[in-house]
Amino acid sequence: xxxxxxxxxxxxxxxxxxxxxxxxxxxxxxxxxxxxxxxxxxxxxxxxxxxxxxxxxxxxxxxxxxxxxxxxxxxxxxxxxxxxxxxxxxxxxxxxxxxxxxxxxxxxxxxxxxxxxxxxxxxxxxxxxxxxxxxxxxxxxxxxxxxxxxxxxxxxxxxxxxxxxxxxxxxxxxxxxxxxxxxxxxxxxxxxxxxxxxxxxxxxxxxxxxxxxxxxxxxxxxxxxxxxxxxxxxxxxxxxxxxxxxxxxxxxxxxxxxxxxxxxxxxxxxxxxxxxxxxxxxxxxxxxxxxxxxxxxxxxxxxxxxxxxxxxxxxxxxxxxxxxxxxxxxxxxxxx
Length: 336
Known about the structure:
CATH superfamily of the domain at 95-296: MetI-like
Helix content: over 70%
CATH class of the domain at 95-296: Mainly Alpha
């Protein structure tokens, strides 16, 4: 197990280096002038040139990259052009909001997706199964930003059931910082009112974000369950006299859940990237809205830093998923 962790961690390093190189080159290829964006519309050519020199934008690309690499090796992401604060400080403030949104969305996708997938497989070719297959295709086809706007119009504007945007209402203050996750910190502080308000704010953006992943998990769970239900050991246990659900819950589900768990790990990275549009629509103060702001202002340091942080989180989550595989399936554990 220790050798597996060491090997995977070593593989993360070249992956992050490649990600940094790719992102660095791509943001430099965009035909925008960050010095002009920083200087403003009324800046003179001399002022723009001075800003370009002070931030090093006038140096060759390879010198900029080498300087940035040395900076990253010291744990320094640089200063944000827009906020004029260290990028690491901006990320530390905004990362918990994105993690909380992603975790709740992943919980929606996993719990609801696995449950519906199991039910669709058990009642295969029934009306319920056909309905679920249609809805899962629709969940994959519908654009998340369109679903977000429709949910806002319905549940916020029409029925006034859920808040329109933000993490908390104006009359509530953030709970004392422990994890940065409002749902967790409010429970730790015993602030039930704050917890309920934070829960009402996160339900709609999290569920919207989870739609694509939920549909994917439903499809993979249903397929894996149907395949397992046709195995010989299921027929043997039925012949012995085990009840249907006694076979499905401890045996069939455990042998079928490896594939959905893999998808859950992959979905975590997809949900973080998909949170960009959702956070912008719901005015959620996370990394997604920060990245959108950085793109509009050509804030190269912020763009690169957010990309690296998301890449690291994605790699770390996949290592955790491999370990979970070993806990679920002993055959996988022997290969670690």
